[in-house]
Known about the structure:
FAD/NAD(P)-binding domain; 16 helices; five-stranded parallel β-sheet; alpha/beta; single chain; binds ligand NA7; globular
Amino acid sequence: MTRDMDALIIGAGFSGMYQLICLRDRLGLDVRVLEMGEGVGGTWYWNRYPGARCDSESHSYCYGFSRELLEAWEWSERYPGQAEILRYLDHVADRFDLRRSISFGTRVVGADFDAAANKWVVRTEGGDVYRVNFLITAVGCLSSANVPDLKGLEGFAGDWYHTGLWPHEGVDFSGKLVGQIGTGSTGIQSVPVIAGEAGHLTVFQRTANYSIPARNAKLTDAFKAYVKANHPDIRALMHSTPNGHPFAINPRRVFDVDDAERERLFEEGWAAGGLQFRAAFGDVLVDQAANDEAAGFIKRKIREVVTDPGTAELLADIDHPFAAKRPPIDSEYFEAFNRDNVSLVDVRSDPIAEVTATGVRLASGREFALDIIVFATGFDAMTGPLLRMDIRGRDGVRLADVWAAGPQTYLGLQVAGFPNLFTMTGPGSPSVLCNMPVAIEQHAEWIADCIGHMRANGIRTVETTAAAAEAWGREVADAANATLLPKATHSWYLGANVPGKPRVFMPYAGGMARYRAHCAEVAAGGYPGFVMGG
Ligand code: NA7
């Protein structure tokens, strides 16, 4: 089947769904969404691992564009779990009648720009072809699972799963010997839940990680009433903060206060829980000495919680600044290591050499018998989901070649040589450094405004220039270098978790509020940095 349409959106998660609303319902375009999964939800459709939960607070982890939607939906917990977020997104799909415009179970395998016709020609695995004026990728930043290339995995007699591709029917851990590889945000969420079900859980830790107690709880009626009564103010606050959360970052500096007061404020942040701990001071992510204080506080907490001194030392032996990798928040993560059925293995000093038929063998020869291996090993972040589709711009140039030395975009929205292609929450935009729905709504609206502007003015192509993308690339690097973020040299922000991936700091760290203002200025100023043609 070949279809001609105005626009095609790839992905029906938070971003694709709202982009559809913007383009179909507001601009009146003929639009289709192609989605690999059999339902909406993106991240929340795939990530069904035990303990999967958002680390943004529920009242901020939702769309803000519709007052009626905000009024209609009520979250049950401070941090929404995977199932509840998926119910929310299903509700949005029903409320805005989105499903009629979405093709589920449809994988895009290629997209070529046909300059003569000024169309993107998009091919699906099933052999369908779409010829569209605008192509919008809404493929998510963390949707390309990273399963380490471990020798012998194919011969493992037990079962193995990656957290980001979790079976919908769940996994029965009862009585099983389970090995989990990975202690990032995901692994830190899954450990306590798997530990509660498994016969024994062995956690293979390569890099120890900070984590702040989430203090998750059911929302009180009073809080729900506060949220309902204060949507506009909460939204204004989220739009004013660098990372789109509904609480301000306190501008005071760590050394503005004396030791006792600092300890009290850290304790207050620790009690408040989640990312509010990081917001207790304004300089934690920019000043190493300030960061050391926060890091020291958390390490003391780990040692207080974990009763076995050897395990506590391994967990507290953290090699990067606090929050330089995405800071996990947890529900009883460190506490789980006090259980008799949980053990921690350091695979930094003694790496995994191979998976055998019956378990895992380390370089030293130590062996662990396992029935199930859980890979909480993260994703080929930000560029992975884009590069696994074969996207070719002008003159057949492959996106993979253009980005061989790392992604280059203007505003994370466009790539030079790829006209009328918009990359929602793409590398070079705040995306993963921001509460995602806030970043997503801004991108969807900016793209819709740009397309609306083009249609109103008879413009057929929009394409950023190589000079604009290069200049923006420098801004992205400068913004990162003004923080401690690049000091976590093995983080996925830098692409360092995937062997062979270029080390380029991918998200824009200059803050969502600043980025939003900049994008608005670009639009108001007639789109400098973009060439409008035709
Ligand atoms: P992350 O944050 O990339 O964490 C992956 C973890 O897996 C991390 O501890 C890695 O250790 C570990 N890992 C990866 N490969 C290996 C191998 N080969 N051997 C041992 N350990 C390994 O992914 P998450 O899914 O936890 O989180 C991703 C984002 O999703 C998160 O930030 C939230 O935004 C949601 P390493 O640190 O590389 O030494």
